[in-house]
Amino acid sequence: MRGERFPWAPVLLIAGGVLLLDQATKAWVLRALPGRGAVTIVPGFFDVVLSRNTGGVFGLFSGPPGLARRVLFTVATGAALVALAVYLRRWARESRLALVALSLVAGGAVGNLVDRLRFGSVVDFIDWHWRGHHWYTFNIADSAISTGAVLLIVHSLLPARGAAEPPAPPPPGPVA
Prior knowledge:
Blueprint: H1 8-32, E1 39-42, E2 46-53, H2 67-91, H3 96-119, E3 122-130, E4 133-134, H4 140-157
Antiparallel strand pairs: 1-2, 2-3, 3-4
Helix pairs in contact: 1-3, 2-3, 3-4
């Protein structure tokens, strides 16, 4: 194990696929939706709408685009990507689930980082709603990050590979 090269190909394939799909859908939305408002896909349930998020997850810390906010989110994303690389090297050989989960998170993080660097905000467009209740508008990158996070929770709940089974209780002895 030590000294052998880490297999980055599956990570790059998954994260790159997320990045490409995310950026392609955002490019389509930016071309197709400016000035149109919401486009209803499933009435009363799902619309596509152009939205800009200058903040973090769920719009936290949003406000007018500014250099300080862009630098903060860029540095935070860079630190997260370094942490993801460390965890990938640690867990990905042991678990395909961890490899997929961390790759999804990495691809989503890079997708949103590209938006922040290009536009100063993240392009969101997926709008789920039901009976007047709206979920936060999001994008493919956000979906990948959320799916990866759920898969990491599942990974943490599974028994570790090669973990020893607890010893069986001794057979009952004679009763005195």
